[in-house]
Fold Citrate synthase.
Amino acid sequence: MASLRIASSALRGVARPAFSSTRSAGFTAARCLSTKSLKDTFAEKVPQEIEKIKKLKKEHGSKVLGEVTLEQVYGGARGIKSLVWEGSVLDAEEGIRFRGKTIPECQEILPKAEGGEEPLPEGLFWLLLTGEVPTTEQVRGLSAEWAARAELPKFIEELIDRCPTDLHPMAQFSLAVTALEHQSSFAKAYAKGINKKEYWTYFFEDSMDLIAKLPTIAARIYQNVFKGGKVAAVQKDKDYGFNLANMLGYGENKDFVELMRLYLTIHSDHEGGNVSAHTTHLVGSALSSPMLSFAAGLNGLAGPLHGLANQEVLNWLFKMKEKIGNDLSDEAIKKYLWDTLNGGQVVPGYGHAVLRKTDPRYVSQREFALKKLPEDPMFKLVSQVYKIAPGVLTEHGKTKNPYPNVDAHSGVLLQYYGMTESSFYTVLFGVSRALGVLPQLIIDRAVGMPIERPKSFSTEHYAKLVGATL
C-alpha cells in the first residue's frame, strides 16, 4: 500500500516487508503525503523508546521494586510488580488511564465520527500504540485501512460456516483467529529468516490485518448462530464501530452504533495483568504470531471469571426480575442480594481484582444509559442494584471492592437495542480487547522484550524458603 511504502527516515536501514496491493483500496498518495501514517508515527518513536529502556535498566536495574509475599504467590500473583505494559495503568482508587488519560478525557479529546458523540476506537488504538492523540484525518485514514483489510479468506468463511450452531460463539471466534495464522506475514518471514529489528514491522502488519478482520469474523458467527446467516458488506467509507454494528444487523440504529464505538473503546485495555492481556503478551513473548497470541488471550477471556462475566450478570438480573417482578424497592433488592450471598454465590458484576471504587467503565455506560434509555426497566433495575449492593456487600464483609465493574452494565445496554443473545457478548469484548493487547505486542517486538519465564517452586520448597514445617 502506498502509505506503507513512503520512505521514512526512522526506518532507514530497516527493510520493510512487501504487502499486497489489494490493501491499498481507498488510499491515495496525496492522502499519505498530507498526514503521517500510524506505522511511520510509531517507527519514529522506536529508537527513543529503546534508548529510554536501556538507560532505565543501566542506571536503576538493581533497584528493588517491592517484596513478594507467600500469600501473593498462592493468591494468583496478585499485586506482584513484574509486567511492562505501556498502554494503560490501572489505579485502585482512580481507575484506568490510557496513556495517562482518563476515560472522560478520552471521550473528550479523541476524534469522533461526523455528528457522533462517542470516541472512535481507531483513535484509542493510535493513542495506545504511540502515546499521541491522532488527528481526525489520521483516524479516518486508519478507518479506511482497516476497512480495506477486512475481507476474510474463503477458507475462514467456510470454517465458521461449518461450526455447529451450538458451539459457543467464543470457541468459534478463537478457532477462526487461530486459523488466520495461515495469513501471518510474520510467520512466513520468520521461516525465511529476518533480522530481529524487523520483527515489529511484521507484527504491526499482522495486527492490522487481524483487527480489521475481527468484526467480519464476529458478525459471521453472530449471523450463523442467531440470525439469517447473511453478513452485510464492509462499507469502505465508514468507521470500525459502524461496520461492526452494521454487519451485526444494527447499522440503521444510530444509538447502537454510538454504543459500539463507546463499547469498543472502554473494553479495549485494562493494563497488562488481566488474563486476556497477560496471556496474549506471554504467548507473544515466544514469538508466536499475533494471530496465535491473541487466540490464546481469547481463550482466557472466555472464562467466567473474566470476559464471560457480562453474560452471567445479565442472566442473574433476569432471574432477579423474574423473582421480584416490578417491585424495585430497596427491601426487595436487598433481600435478593442477601439470598444470592447466603446461597454461596457471588453478586456478578461487583468487585474487582484491583479497583477499590466504581469502575469508570461502568460510569461511562451508566451515563450513556441516562441519556439514551433512562426509562428502560432493566436499566432501572441495574440502577437500584447499584444503589443497594455496595452496602450489602460491605456488610457481608467478604468483598474487598463492593462496587460495580464494567460487566455490571454492558449486557443491559446491548439487550435494550435488541441484542439479547448473551452468549455472544464476550465475542464483542474480544473484538475490543484486540485494540488494547495488540499495540503492546508490537511494542514488545520493537523494543526487543525477551521471552517471559518467571521462576516457580513446589509447595515444599516454598515452605523451606519461609522456614515452615509441613
